[in-house]
Amino acid sequence: MKTLLYIFIGGGAGSILRYLVAKFSLQYLHENLPFGTIIANVLASLVLGFITVKTMHSPQVWKPMIAVGFCGGFSTYSTFSNETFALLQSGQYGVAGMNALLNLVFCLAAIGLGMFLGR
Fold first, then answer.
1. Confidence (pLDDT) at 24
2. What pLDDT does residue 73 have?
3. Residue 55: pLDDT above 90?
4. 70, 10 in Cβ contact below 8 A?
5. What DSSP letter does each residue of 11-78 carry, written as one string?
6. What is the mean predicted confidence (pLDDT) over 98-116?
């Protein structure tokens, strides 16, 4: 039961941060690409890579709260999919492809960087 509470707390914090990142990106960044989602996914991947390495041999309090809760609430595959699909529907095939490529490449790099930093 305690684990669910930790996941709940982490997920709430991640969701709020994702909202703030999305709001910031709409105000200050290029409008064609959904940068808020890209930023949230990349940062969540970085944190997940780091916490995965750091919590390998530690008590399992932090891993559920940060890896499952925070990273799960902060990153957003469903929003990425929805935004990419909307770009495809509106005929912006290049932007949709760029969005998919940026999410994939940057998130993979961020996971690797997070694991490197965690060592």
1. 93
2. 95
3. no
4. yes
5. HHHHHHHHHHHHHHHHHHS-SSS-HHHHHHHHHHHHHHHHHHHHTTTS-TTHIIIIIIIIHHHH--HH
6. 97
